[in-house]
Fold this protein.
Amino acid sequence: MIISASRRTDIPAFYSEWFLQRLREGAVLVPNPRRPDHYSRVELNPAVVDCIVFWTKNPAPMLSRLDEIENMGYPFYFQFTLTPYDRRIEQGLPPKNVLLETFRKLSGRLGPHRVVWRYDPVILGTGINIGYHLHQFANMAAALEGFTFRCIFSFLDLYPKVRKPLNGITSQETDEADMRRIAEGFAKVASSHDIRLFTCSEPLDLSQFGITHAACIDQHMVEEIIGCQIQATKDTNQRPACRCIQSIDIGTYDCCSHGCIYCYAASKPGSIIKHTGSHDPRAPVLVGSVTNNDVVTEREMKSNKVSQLKLF
């Protein structure tokens, strides 16, 4: 099985000690997003965890812990989101030059094949036009040349919960003509820096620019990292256009402090303050605590590796 850590919050940035403690103890309790008094107990053991996929905007706090994770026998790779927005939009992130250096350090430690650059989401609005994105993307791609071979981008989905926070910046999604102009510009830049370009959960066909649809939790990428084929099925819990394979996400919503106003995984600042205040790095759950009245169910865990090794 593949562990996703996490689409719901930035575990490397804020909860790396908790995550390491979960690996040491061999299990984690994950609340059901729709029934918070119901938990799944997920076994964490290299015998059943085929790969870990980290999602982050700032993995710096986890850099010193990578040796321990590897020494425990866990393969992993990173989805590193790096966008050009200022503090109007991404309120709690370090400066971009610092994040670029962190990206290079992470890639230097793991290799460029294990660090995927996410330029996500692409927002058009007040002070952010197509020219802005093409200029910023070119600068970032130049800074990351040789440190990653893959860039995944997507356009803003204006979910109801993000309309109010984005008011004054944008009130509409990107139209197809602008999507194609941006994609064409990105593709020219990416190819000049030996970076393959992909889209995430975008139904629009951009293959004319050499851009293909991505699976962020990608079967072939996992197989290359672990040196073995796996049996994988599509993750039907994601959006229809998502091509990710099945995984178990061990995160919790409303506990990321980056303050990105386009985030679908955060609802109210008050909830985030409450949840982060209840975090205990020694606890089996990410935030809060489990009571005697809560329901805990064992999640079935098994490796999806096939017996025949595949050489790459």
